[in-house]
Amino acid sequence: MTEEQTCAKCDRDTVIFREYEGRGLCEEHFSIDVNKKIKRTIRKNDMVKSGDTIAVGLSGGKDSAVMLQQLVEIFGDRPDIEIVAVAVHEGIDPYRNESISAAEEMCEKMDVELEIGRYEDYYDLRMENVVDRLEKSNCTYCGIMRRDLLNKLSREVGADKIAIGHNLDDEAQAIMMNHVKGDMKRLARISGSDPVDHDKFVERIKPLKDLMEREIALYSKLHDLGVIDRCPHVEEGSLRPIMKSFLNRLESEMPGIKHSIVSQGRELSDIVNENKDFDSEENQLRECERCGEPCSSKVCRKCQLLEEVEKAKE
Hints:
Elements: E1 16-18, E2 23-25, H1 27-44, E3 53-57, H2 62-75, E4 82-89, H3 95-110, E5 114-118, H4 119-122, H5 138-156, E6 161-163, H6 168-181, H7 184-187, E7 203-205, H8 213-222, H9 239-253, H10 257-275, E8 286-287, E9 294-295, H11 301-313
Parallel strand pairs: 3-4, 3-6, 4-5, 6-7
Antiparallel strand pairs: 1-2, 8-9
């Protein structure tokens, strides 16, 4: 239920009440506002340039579905911008089969090319065969391999940028996690793209980073986009779910706190970037001695984890 029945822009019923703004919006004006926020984020952060090919990391879930729909709406008619989609199948059935099918259906409707990469083809691995048998959390292994494969797929389709569906909640969680762990290098990446460069590394952009998760979920529901995208093997005891739950409780008591955390986190990120030498040798990307992918050490984290996975198979 919304707290106010009348839209702040017109006399129609509201579909959302934003406590942090103190106003409600109807479906039409809420949809317009979502589009304006995404455009503003893209423009303010100079995310897209003429001639770019943008690979959209598509999972079939609400965030990536809304992102693809919006990028097609914003750039679909521009001949100088190309939108393609890339998706990863980790080998978790039937969960991933459902979301991949949703992604395929969405791309067909929007006339967007979709490239699918499978762990089985690239890593000789199906995650469902090794979950809960690994030394670390399932998400640690899967997340690192997923990022690696998305980067590969983006290169294979000739993309200049890869758009990932991180929202404001994700940003707030990442900022708080980096503070808790004292990870200044990762904190420095919050305000913009990664402070490193390599020919094999496709720049990541976050068009949804100024939108709250619940607003993206509502937009997805109103426009019939995406499916529930929750892996059955997510481990609730890991740090991110704990931080997500904590921030949600905090937001319910102090509306706007997530926006404040993100704003302050980005300011701190700028300060860290200004005062730390990210051009030093230790921060330069090189190529992994095993797979040739960009990384900051002799052997990339993905290859190290794949070695642990092989042991778990035995």
